[in-house]
Amino acid sequence: MSLNKAPKNNVFYRNQNWIYPRIAYGKGIYLYGEDGKKYIDACSGSAVANIGHGNEEVARCYEEQVKRIAFTHLSRWTVDVIEKCAEKISEWTPGDLNHVHFVSGGSEATEAAIKMARQYFIERDGKNTTKWKVISKWNSYHGATLGALSMTGDTPRRKIYDPMLLAFPKIPQFYHYRNPWGCKTLEETSIKAAQALEEEILRQGPENVAAFITEPVVGSAAPGAHPEKIYFEMVREICKKYDVLLIVDEVMSGFGRTGMKFGVDYFGVVPDIMTVAKGMSCGYTPIGAAIANGEVFETIMVKGSGNFVHGHTYGGNPLSCAVALCVINILEREGYVENAAKQGEYLMQKLQGLYKYPIVGDIRGKGLMIGVEFVKDRETKEPFDVSENIKGKVTINCLEEGVVVYPGGGSVDGVRGDHFLLAPPLNITKEEVDELYEKLERGIKKTCEQVL
Ligand code: PMP
Q: How many helices (H) and strands (E) does the chain have?
């Protein structure tokens, strides 16, 4: 298998390097290619298809809702499934994160969250407030639209659009494996990363900072990187101290991916705004949300103007809400969050076996959100030269073995992110984890033989 040109047809594909067969259909954790081969979807697309492919119950729900009512505009109408979906989400979210602003995906959720933060301070303090800056991090991903990309700290993805991006301040990620402070333990890195937030707020002036945005467990930019609890405890305190809203991006980590309902549940903190998408509907329909706590909601919608100056046509359409509600009910009823914790632990144990291959530098993650990072030299953590295309080689070799991984992005100080994300559907069984590991190991072994 080698890198080919994208298929020639009328689709404006995103990638010219094409290794994947055309997909005929999917069932459970498997994708079936038109090439007659069966592939384990070990990344659920991009941590999306969390209840697996081809779910019949969702298909029935879809059909029923289309027949009832597929579209109404949320600025004028409401439908029972929209309200029920918001109610179900608020049962899942921690603390008083109960107010759901529906959008159509993760980038839109980021846009809504940062605008919500800005409007909160305007409604609370008046239009002359100087609070508008949002602090985010390097080695992070919050979306591709220009506002969300301004939050995103992923150099390769930002590069050509840099002149179009807003100059929001960035601080280092809790990416312990390549932390810039020379910390030896994850706890030290977590503390340094939290202190960096306080320093940045003071540098910018707290009167100018509206919010801080972070993933609880990093997705594509440094897959699986996570802090210790102390990080979120400190960050929560710092945000409170300087009157800065805490936005947690649960687009990838939410709805059970990490083995908890939400990534922040590991750390016992409640953000002021949370963003979700992906696992909220598990890919059966495009939907996302920015979820506000009582203070933010009341300030804008009850005590304030009562008009959040933001919205998209498809945000809160009944069809997407019905499907998301159906999917969340399935996650809940089938105990898939608990299964993600259990199988995540089992997969993580098995993955330790990969350390016998010297190109494997680091394996980290929570639940079924796991990153594997490759290095030329494990001692020094020196990466391979870009021309070696390790990420591409691993991806191809794993695909040939019948397992699909998600090659990550990210880059720190010119060091490319040679890593991939493992994020199989949350309904994976122990036997399927065994099969996944065997195939993955063969792909990595082959890569190792090719490059060493
Ligand atoms: N935030 C995070 C953490 C993500 O992983 C993603 C998607 N990879 C987004 C935001 C953007 O979501 P979308 O692609 O649905 O716009």
A: 13, 17
